[in-house]
Design goal:
The complex is a heterotrimer of chains A (280), B (322) and C (117). Helix content of chain A is 62%, strand content 0%. Chain A contains ten helices and no strands. Chain A is globular, with a radius of gyration of 19 Å. The longest helix of chain C has 12 residues, at 35-46. Chains in contact: A-B, A-C, B-C. Chain B: This is Ring-1,2-phenylacetyl-CoA epoxidase subunit PaaA. Chain B: GO terms for molecular function: phenylacetyl-CoA 1,2-epoxidase activity.
Chain lengths: 280, 322, 117
């Protein structure tokens, strides 16, 4: 890894006091990881009861629960560092402080989860599949992170990703290889996801520092691995894999977000905001 | 049981006699076994309604899934609503196997729901406007469901009994999930306590209705006699309602809530709870899909079904090709 | 039960194994358009709260089930102790005459470990 001091390992949050710059970059990375999983699992939770098939609704919900569980683990790491309580970090922060990729905050489709939801299953499958593969690549790298509490969390999260990947890959391949309307919908969803997929793969302005501190490998390497993993799948469904991915609606890693995220935060914190100090 | 040399040579009467002997001996009837038509039809109606009620029942609580006030509450209620869908899945499978000889599948179940031919449980037509409603549903609606479902754990129809066994095991988690939300509110701020009392007031009548009318005289129809004859259940609607009061009224009072029925008391001499009857005419209206949220929730279910039809179409032809 | 043919709603029976030495156990059935989709839904539908080490999905139309009448063929008389150790219980006394212990099930199954000399 470039510029990494191989002896540098931080084993406990307390040690971070002596490394303020390291801490700052670590916090940035943890927010990216936590916010990504949190907002996508929130979007997934809106689907509950509305999936195309009852059995799939149940399977999908398990994946959303796992993913929100992962977010909770990352927020807990932030809490352990003294950044704030996990629940406050998840519910209280305005969109300008969020670090998730813009792709993951996008609404599931037209309508609201309580009224006239016309959610797009093709978009759900493509977004979740591509994101999960990116998450897998990231997690494999984080298993060797210089911040050992994060490396330990990565080992745990990795366990659940096999199922998530298998599940989404199956849906992706079958629907994309189906004829007619389904294939067209899937192609459209793939194009739409690629428009903002650069935002998932980037580590933001502090990415280089993350690499220097041995927190994670470079976004260039991670992107290559993602492409490597997806190549055979794209061949199987007979689609072209682009070499560049867009950030059409901004770089969420730098706090750029859409109105979709503001709306989501309002909803997900509706009860919490009634009384943030109360026990719920 | 008489030794059967060849089952198909038996007359319909002999088959029925043999069937009733099996029922009375406590044997389980399986999907492909011979069964009288009214047994099959009663089961289809009961189990399809039970199953679709779970699916529709996911909707009022689901409103609160994205809004739950902490990470742990979000996870807990997601798992709970997922279970409701899961219970619906189990029950619909049982109903679908019973309907298969009639040439019906899940497709027809959904169509019957949309047409209004297949009813869903009265409680799931009601609004759930606050977080306390989500907790109250988990605590008391699930509590009521536990009372009716445990009553059928020994049902003579094997697949239903097996599904209920799975369901009741998960209901224990649901009950505790509901209690956890309720107790946090009951021990919370003044506003939280008020929110909880309001939810109880809102749900009380629906909870009384949950167990169904005391007899056919109340609403014109009641399936309870036939379900008891065929050993699908053992207790009457009123017995179940009384059981519910016995288990839950002391708990409701113990956490400082007030019952929204001032006449309610336990009559020692009769050994019965005395309570104000709900408006059974309103009950009839509600289950005819004229409840406060009936149309809206049916619309959600129907929209998601049609909106995703392309997914089912896409994969419906390739069973051999994959 | 009619569940053959094509279509999205096909019946699959789900089986699982608790651990590597446990027998396969039937869980429940689900509807899926094909084996692959059935498999990715199976665990979360029926085993959300238990760990398993293997899952099988079997299309129900591939299963030959018994009819109600055929189940009569499962009944048998209770006169087959020659098939079981119950029919050989007298050996215990016999071996005692030779000052040897009977090799019962407990003893024999214990041989997988070290044999005491």
């Amino acid at each position: 890894m470039e510029g990494r001091d191989p002896t540098m390992k931080i084993t406990k949050p307390e040690e971070l006091q002596q490394h303020p710059e390291y801490k700052e970059v670590l916090v940035e990375l943890l927010f990216q990881l936590a916010d990504d999983d949190f907002i996508l699992s929130y979007r997934g939770s809106e689907w509950l009861g509305l999936a195309p098939h009852i059995e799939e609704d149940i399977a999908f919900s398990s994946i959303n629960q796992d993913t929100m569980g992962h977010a909770a683990m990352y927020y807990q790491l932030l809490e352990d560092i003294g950044i704030g309580k996990a629940d406050d970090l998840a519910h209280q922060r305005p969109s300008s402080e969020r670090r998730n990729a813009v792709l993951l905050e996008e609404v599931n489709g037209p309508g609201h989860y309580l009224s006239e939801p016309r959610y797009d299953w093709a978009f759900a499958v493509v977004r979740h599949y591509f994101y999960t593969q990116a998450k897998k690549v990231r997690i494999d790298s984080l298993k060797h992170s210089s911040y050992e509490p994060l490396a330990q969390v990565a080992v745990k999260i990795n366990m659940e990703l096999y199922y998530h990947l298998m599940h989404w890959r199956t849906w992706f391949i079958q629907l994309t290889n189906a004829q007619g309307e389904a294939r067209e919908r899937m192609k459209k969803a793939v194009a739409k996801v690629f428009e903002d997929f650069g935002g998932v793969l980037t580590l933001g302005v502090k990415g280089d520092r993350m690499v220097e501190f041995g927190l994670i490998e470079s976004e260039k390497i991670l992107k290559q691995r993602w492409v490597q993993a997806m190549k055979p799948v794209f061949a199987e469904v007979n689609l072209d894999l682009p070499s560049e991915f867009g950030m059409k609606r901004g770089n969420g890693r730098n706090g750029e977000h859409t109105a979709d995220l503001d709306e989501a935060i309002m909803t997900l914190s509706e009860v919490y905001r009634l009384d943030p100090l109360a026990t719920w | 049981m008489p030794v059967v040399t060849s089952f198909r040579w038996l007359s319909e009467e002999e088959k029925y006699e043999r069937f009733m002997e099996r029922i009375n001996a406590g044997e389980k009837i399986e999907a492909d076994d011979w069964m009288p038509e009214d047994y099959r039809m009663t089961l289809i109606k009961l189990i399809a309604m039970h199953g679709i009620s779970e699916i529709m029942g996911a909707l009022p609580e689901k409103e609160w899934v994205p809004k739950a006030p902490s990470l742990r509450r979000k996870l807990g209620i997601m798992a709970k609503v997922q279970d409701e869908m899961g219970h619906g899945q189990l029950l619909l499978r049982v109903a679908e196997d019973l309907m298969a000889p009639l040439g019906k599948t899940r497709e027809e179940i959904m169509q019957d729901l949309f047409k209004g031919d297949l009813k869903f449980h009265n409680v799931f037509h009601m609004p759930a406007p606050t977080w306390a409603d989500a907790g109250l549903i988990g605590w008391l609606v699930d509590g009521a469901a536990i009372i009716t479902q445990t009553n059928m754990l020994d049902a003579s129809y094997g697949p239903y009994a097996r599904a209920l066994k799975r369901i009741c095991a998960e209901e224990v988690f649901h009950a505790q999930h509901g209690e956890s939300i309720i107790l946090a509110l009951a021990e919370g701020t003044k506003e939280q306590k008020e929110m909880l009392q309001d939810a109880l007031n809102r749900w009380w009548e629906a909870l009384l209705m949950f167990f169904g009318p005391g007899s056919a005289a109340t609403t014109g129809t009641s399936k309870q006699d036939i379900t008891i004859k065929y050993r699908i259940r053992t207790k009457t609607n009123e017995q179940l309602r009384q059981d519910f009061f016995t288990k839950y009224v002391p708990r409701i009072l113990s956490i400082g809530l007030k019952l929204p029925d001032e006449t309610m008391h336990f009559d020692e001499s009769k050994g019965k709870w005395v309570y104000k009857q709900p408006d059974w005419n309103r009950f009839k209206e509600i289950i005819r899909n004229n409840g406060p949220k009936s149309k809206e929730r049916l619309r959600l279910r129907e929209l998601s079904y049609h909106n995703n039809a392309w997914v089912r179409e896409a994969l419906s032809g390739q069973s051999a090709a994959v | 039960m009619s569940d053959s043919g094509k279509g999205f709603y096909q019946v699959f029976e789900v089986f699982s194994r608790k651990n590597d030495t446990a027998p396969l156990q039937h869980q429940f059935s689900l509807l899926a358009p094909n084996h692959e989709i059935a498999l990715v839904m199976a665990q979360e539908n029926f085993m959300r709260r238990e760990t398993v080490s293997d899952i099988w999905v079997v299309k129900r139309s591939d299963i030959r089930m018994m009819t109600e009448e055929e189940k009569e063929s499962l009944k048998r008389l209770d006169n087959k102790d020659y098939r079981t150790t119950k029919g050989y219980g007298y050996l215990k006394k016999k071996w005692r005459q030779y000052e040897q212990q009977m090799l019962d099930e407990k003893e024999i199954l214990s041989w997988k470990g070290e044999i005491q000399r």
